[in-house]
Write a structure and sequence with these properties.
The chain is an alpha+beta fold. The chain contains seven helices and nine strands; from the N terminus they run H-E-E-E-H-H-H-E-H-H-H-E-E-E-E-E. 35% of the residues lie in helices and 23% in strands. Helix 3 runs antiparallel to helix 4 and helix 5 packs antiparallel against helix 6. This is TIM44-like domain-containing protein.
Length: 314
C-alpha cells in the first residue's frame, strides 16, 4: 500500500518537471540567427538531420510556413534562370484586346463564309474563296506586326533582358544581405569556452555572468527559466561538462554583425534538486550526451562572441 501511496506524488513530480531537459535552453530551440533565423542551418557531420525550428524567437515568424515544419519559411517562386522556367501567361492573358479583336474578326468571316455570306460575298463568286484567304493573310500579318511591336517595347522597358533577372542575382534559398565568412582557430576556441562558461554560470544562477555571454534575448530566456525553477522551489545543476566535438554549420556577415552556427556535442550530468538538495529529476552519476546547434554573434572588430541562439538537433 505504501508504494501505491507514492504513485500520485511521483506522477505529480513527473508532470511538474518532465524529463531531464532543464539545462540552459531547456531542450528547446530559442533565440535569433539574424536573417537566417527561420532557415534550417546546413547539416553537419554530427547533425545529419534537420535542426528543429525555433520555438521562441524575437525575430518575426515568416508566413506562410513551408514543408510541415513550423517556422521554416516557404521558398519563393523559382525565378527565371534559377532552376525553373519563367512563368509565361497564355496568349489571351498577355494580349486580351488583340486576341478578342482578331478572334471576333476571323470568327465572323468564317461564319459568314460557311453560311454563304463570306467576307467577299460568300461562295457564290469564283474569287470569294481566294479573297478570303488573302484577307486572312493580311490580318495575320497585321497581328504579327502589332505583337512584335508590343514585345520589343516590353523588352526595352526591362533593360533588354529576356530572362527578367540580372546576372549575379541571389540563388534560390540564400538569405539576402548576408555574406559568408571564414573563421579562425581562435573563434572555435571562444565557442568551446563559452559553452563551458555558460553552463557554469547557469548552475550558479549567476545572471550577471550570463548577461555578459549572451544577447539580451537569450539572457531573458535564461532568466525566465531560472525564475520558473525557483518558483517551484527547484534548482538545476549542470556539472562535469565535457566538450566532445564541434562542427561549423555556417558563418556569415550581416552589416557589421558576424554570425556563426556551430554544431556542438558534449556530455554532462544534469540534475534538478529541491530546496533541500534532494534529486527530483536527472541523475548525478550518469552522464548524458547532448548535441545542439549554438549560434554566436559579435560586432566586427568591437567585441567578443556571445550566444544568440540554441537549436536542438534532429
Amino acid at each position: 500500500m505504501r508504494n501505491f501511496r507514492l504513485l500520485p506524488l511521483a506522477f505529480a513530480v513527473f508532470c511538474l518537471f518532465g524529463t531531464a531537459d532543464a539545462r540552459p535552453g531547456g531542450g528547446s530551440s530559442i533565440g535569433s540567427r539574424g536573417s537566417h533565423t527561420w532557415s534550417a542551418p546546413p547539416r553537419t557531420s554530427i547533425t545529419p538531420g534537420w535542426a528543429r525550428p525555433m520555438d521562441q524567437s524575437a525575430t518575426p515568424r515568416p508566413s506562410p510556413n513551408y514543408g510541415g515544419a513550423p517556422g521554416y519559411a516557404a521558398p519563393a517562386r523559382p525565378m527565371p534562370g534559377y532552376g525553373a522556367p519563367a512563368y509565361r501567361p497564355s496568349y489571351p492573358v498577355r494580349h486580351p484586346f488583340l486576341s478578342g479583336f482578331a478572334g471576333g474578326f476571323l470568327g465572323a468571316g468564317l461564319f459568314g463564309l460557311l453560311s454563304g455570306h463570306g467576307m467577299m460575298g460568300g461562295m457564290t463568286g469564283g474569287t470569294s474563296f481566294f479573297g478570303f484567304l488573302f484577307q486572312v493573310l493580311i490580318i495575320g500579318g497585321l497581328i504579327a506586326f502589332v505583337l512584335r511591336m508590343f514585345g520589343n517595347r516590353r523588352q526595352s522597358q526591362m533593360g533588354g533582358s529576356s530572362a527578367g533577372m540580372p546576372t549575379g542575382a541571389p540563388a534560390f534559398g540564400n538569405s539576402g544581405g548576408s555574406t559568408p565568412v571564414t573563421l579562425t582557430n581562435d573563434d572555435y576556441t571562444s565557442f568551446q569556452r563559452l559553452l563551458l562558461d555558460i553552463q557554469a554560470a547557469w548552475s550558479a544562477q549567476n545572471m550577471r555572468a550570463l548577461a555578459s555571454m549572451a544577447t539580451p534575448e537569450m539572457t531573458g530566456y535564461f532568466n525566465a527559466q531560472l525564475s520558473e525553477l525557483a518558483s517551484r522551489g527547484a534548482r538545476n545543476i549542470v556539472s562535469n561538462v565535457r566538450f566532445q566535438r564541434g562542427d561549423l554549420s555556417e558563418a556569415w556577415r550581416e552589416g557589421n554583425m558576424t554570425y556563426a552556427t556551430v554544431a556542438m556535442r558534449y556530455t554532462m550530468t544534469d540534475v534538478t534538486t529541491d530546496s533541500m538538495g534532494n534529486v527530483i529529476d536527472g541523475s548525478s552519476t550518469e552522464a548524458v550526451t547532448v548535441t545542439e546547434l549554438w549560434t554566436f554573434v559579435r560586432a566586427d572588430g568591437r567585441g567578443n562572441w556571445i550566444l544568440s541562439a540554441i537549436q536542438q538537433a534532429g
